[in-house]
Design a protein that fits this description.
mainly beta, Jelly Rolls, 3-stranded antiparallel sheet, 14% helix, globular
Length: 193
């Protein structure tokens, strides 16, 4: 495993990327693998909430955004997509599971969908991953049996502020707005205290 680096060194590597690097998967995946963020350097950006995972903005420009997501034991995301943006994830603290889904049918105007689970991937310090652009619907979760907090770093090609969430049990889907819990280490006004 490569040596840990301060998160700002990871940011510097991402800032060197071109638009093409964010349109394809290999370059950013290699950066997350080759420049693993030192957990100590992430501390100013981490906010924890026992009710819900938190989204903490570290860096943002027109080409990408870098977010640290804090997961208490048992927390997970909704099943969601990323508005046609690429996504890469690394886990500098703990480990997480990613359940991917195949969209069998989706009618966003009608709010209906059918999903089928596909592969399940574990992310940890040594194993960053990228969301498959051909099947981008997934959920991330920190199962109770892992019995430890986790932090994931998410790089999204081009920032976005909404996504589609899915309920396979109800065969429903719909768009929701996304918010940051903190920006650059400062809690946002919209974030609960």
């Amino acid at each position: 495993m490569p040596p840990l680096v301060p998160v700002q060194q990871l940011v510097a590597q991402l800032r060197r990327c071109t638009a093409h690097d964010f349109e394809t998967l290999p370059r950013v995946h290699d950066i997350l693998r080759d420049f693993p963020a030192d957990p100590k350097s992430l501390e100013p950006y981490l906010i924890w909430d026992r009710q819900h995972y938190t989204r903490n903005l570290i860096d943002k420009c027109p080409l990408y955004e870098l977010i640290a997501i804090c997961w208490e034991v048992g927390q997970g995301s909704s099943i969601h997509n990323h508005k046609d943006q690429n996504c890469w994830m690394a886990v500098p603290i703990g480990r997480l599971l990613v359940q991917n889904y195949h969209v069998v049918q989706q009618d966003l105007d009608a709010g209906t969908c059918d999903l089928a689970p596909s592969d399940l991937v574990e992310m940890n310090v040594a194993q960053p991953c990228a969301v498959n652009p051909d099947e981008p619907v997934h959920k991330v979760f920190n199962p109770p049996e892992f019995n430890a907090r986790a932090v994931s770093l998410h790089v999204y090609s081009r920032p976005f502020d909404s996504c589609v969430v899915y309920s396979p049990e109800q065969h429903k889907c719909g768009e929701i707005d996304l918010h940051y819990t903190s920006e650059y280490g400062v809690r946002t006004a919209a974030a609960p205290h």
